[in-house]
Structures are given as structure tokens and as C-alpha cells.
Amino acid sequence: MWFSVDFHSHVPVYIQIKENIKGMILKGKLKVGDYIPSIRALAKDLGVNVNTVARAYRELEQEGIIHAERGEGYVVKKSVEDEIKIETLEELRRIVKKLKSMGIQKEHIQSILDNEFSNGSN
Where are the transmembrane segments (predicted)? Predict the structure, then answer.
């Protein structure tokens, strides 16, 4: 299995699939020209509906990250490292602003960040 999805998460499964594929590109596990599993194969591996994977792939294709090669499958079209980093940092900024508006103290946010960085996991 390539990765797993959290069915209890508030994040829709198709978005989790997209983010996992983008993460694999960022980590170098997928490179430009690499094929990704077919929609049916990934749906079966993850235990999700084929339409869920199709939506994730469709959105990745619209973003220019993958493309379909007729009769071959989906292939990684471009590296997205810079785009993903910028997008993720913007998301972090939005979350920090939201936490600030909720009255969460900087020290609490900093302790969470420190804990995540010292955790040793990627």
C-alpha cells in the first residue's frame, strides 16, 4: 500500500489522497515521469470509492501535477516542491492567525511547533 487515509479525519478523503501524492513528490519518492497507481488499484488498496480517487487525480491533473497518458495511466508531470511549500506555509499563516484570533498564546503555538520539530518524525 502506498499510504493510508484517515476515515475519521475532518479532511475529505480525496484531499488526503492529493496531499499524500504531493507529499511523496516532495520526499522524492515520486519523480517526474514516474507512474502512479491506476485509479482502480489505488481505490482498492485504500478501500475507498473509485470516484474518490478519480476526483483526487482529476484535481491533481488540473493543477498540472500529473497527467494521463492514453493507455498507460497517470504520470507525474512536474515537481511541485516550491509550490507545495509556499501553499503549506500560507496555510500555516492562516492557521496561526485563526489561533491568535481565538486567544491562543504565542508560547502555546511555539511549544507545539517545538514539539513537532523535536519529535524526530518527518
Answer: none
